[in-house]
Amino acid sequence: MAMTIHVDIVSAEEEIFSGPAEMVFAPAIMGDVGIMPRHAPLLTALKPGEVRIQNGDEEQFIYVSGGMLEVQPHVITVLADTAVRAKDLDEAAALEAKQIAEKALKDKRTDIDYARAQAELAEAIAQLQTIQRIKKNRR
Fold first, then answer.
1. Is the pLDDT of residue 4 over 90?
2. Are 42 and 73 contacting, i.e. CB atoms less than 8 angstroms apart?
3. How far apart are alpha carbons 99 and 87 in whole angstroms?
4. Tens digit of pLDDT for each residue in 71-98?
5. Taking the domains of the chain in order of start, what are their residue ranges?
6. Could you say which architecture CATH assigns to the domain 5-86?
7. What is the rounded distance in angstroms from the CA atom of residue 59 to the CA atom of residue 24?
8. In the predicted model, what is the mean pLDDT of residues 105-134?
């Protein structure tokens, strides 16, 4: 039996996942990280993307819009701004959000909040990438 680490993923609304994992991948702000049991302590911000939890042959994908990742030798905690199981993501809504953000960035008016539009575009792209990865893994 492989060693495991306990993982908790929570958002402001609810607990999304709580259970064991052999390996966890997360979108840290400075690049993706892979975490195994007994990892050195770590605290980092997360960017929009997917948290992938591996336990044996089972994989779970959870989209996070950002937040914090805390790693202790026997526990991983993800405090996400928003967290959604990848299978529950709405592809049509993500595509629409992407188009709206792209349109806002192309608009040359000065009353546009470019930082917000860029953040919304990054979130929509991360959601679409997560959806595509889920579709690819189902084949």
1. yes
2. no
3. 22
4. 999 999 999 988 888 777 677 777 777 7
5. 5-86, 89-138
6. Sandwich (2.60)
7. 10
8. 74
pLDDT per residue as tens digits for the range 44-56: 999 998 999 999 8
The amino acid present at 110, given as its one-letter code, is T
Residue whose C-alpha is closest to residue 50's, from 34, 63, 67, 35: 63
Q: Average pLDDT of the chain? A: 85
Nearest-angstrom CA–CA distance, 84 and 8: 13
* Measured CA angle at 138 (ends 97, 5), to 5 deg: 90
Q: Which residue has the tokens 């997917």?
A: 50
CATH of 89-138, one of 3.30.450.20, 3.30.300.20, 1.20.5.440, 1.10.287.3510: 1.20.5.440
β-strands 49-55, 23-28 pairing: antiparallel
Spatial separation of the C-alpha atoms in residues 46 and 82, rounded to whole Å: 11
Q: Which has the higher per-residue pLDDT, 98 or 139?
A: 98
